[in-house]
Amino acid sequence: MTETSPERQLVTRLLKEWGSGNKEALDELMPVVYQQLRKLASICLRSERPDHTLRATALVHEAYLRLVDADVAWQDRVHFFAVSARLLRRILVDHAKANQRQKRGGGAETISLDEAVMIGPQTTGGIVALDEALQRLTALDQRKSEIIELLCFGGLTYDEAATTLKISPATVHRELKLAKAWLHRELTQDSARG
User: Per-residue confidence at 133, pLDDT binned at 50, 70, 90?
Assistant: First the structure.
């Protein structure tokens, strides 16, 4: 899909109208972006345990409720999905932490880096460990953390992530490799400590 496709133009226009106070624009926007939000939610949930209490639809609805109240100056479609990806990740982490508190420790399991980075963690403890590692990465190198978030949680392409971050797709690729290596080391150290 090109940058000037009708769908992209429509989403950008509706986001700007919504940001300007037109609440009807939000009602028009949600059916247009719903399938992509559901796809992002499915990606986030793909490797969760089969009996996970959140489903993609519930995750999208929770994200919608948070998006409605978000005070964001929407730039375009890619910005919307980047923010949505952060919200989906935060909802999953909050849910996992709540479950761990209920289980008094939660019994976190070790996950492989590729499982964690490419399609999301498989266990409740896994997403919490990944989130904590991403927070540490953000403190060291925010751009690398954003690349992980945009590609893995946001479902953006290299080109879309590059556009969002104002860098080249080659830089996205290079920084992703470095970020994955760093996360691998962190997750391995976390499991050795635990």
Answer: confident
